[in-house]
Amino acid sequence: MKSSMQRDVEAGRPIELDAIGGAVLRAAAAHGVETPALAALVRDLSDPADR
After folding, report:
1. Tens-digit pLDDT profile for residues 2-48
2. Better-scored residue on pLDDT, 50 or 11
3. Is there a contact between 17 and 46 (Cβ–Cβ < 8 Å)?
4. Which of 16, 17, 21 is nearest to 38 (CA)?
5. Distances in Å between the alpha carbon of 43 and those of 1, 22?
6. What is the pLDDT of residue 51?
7. Which DSSP letter does residue 39 get?
8. Which residues contact 5 (CB under 8 A, 6 or more apart)?
9. What is each CA distance from 17 to 32, 49, in whole angstroms?
10. What is the pLDDT of residue 50?
11. 3-state secondary structure of 47
């Protein structure tokens, strides 16, 4: 069994990182909640070309 994100990576497709982690980061920011661990994970999983 593989996650959809793992299948996307293996197929060379963009991962749904923004839809998952990005949505949480935006909601947290809107409410003034810091999410350093999630921010680090999203950053580390992001495509270097998107940085």
Report:
1. 988 889 889 988 888 888 899 999 999 999 999 999 999 999 888 65
2. 11
3. yes
4. 21
5. 25, 10
6. 46
7. H
8. 15, 16, 17, 20
9. 21, 14
10. 53
11. coil
Dist. CA 36–CA 13, nearest whole Å? 27
Tokens matching residue 28: 């947290």
Residue 21 has a CB neighbour count (10 Å cut-off) of 19
Q: How far apart are CA 51 and CA 46, in angstroms?
A: 7
**Whole-angstrom distance, CA of residue 6 vs CA of residue 15:** 8
Type of residue found at 50 = D
Q: Answer yes or no: are the C-beta atoms of 20 and 37 closer than 8 Å.
A: no
Tokens of residue 8, six digits: 């996307």
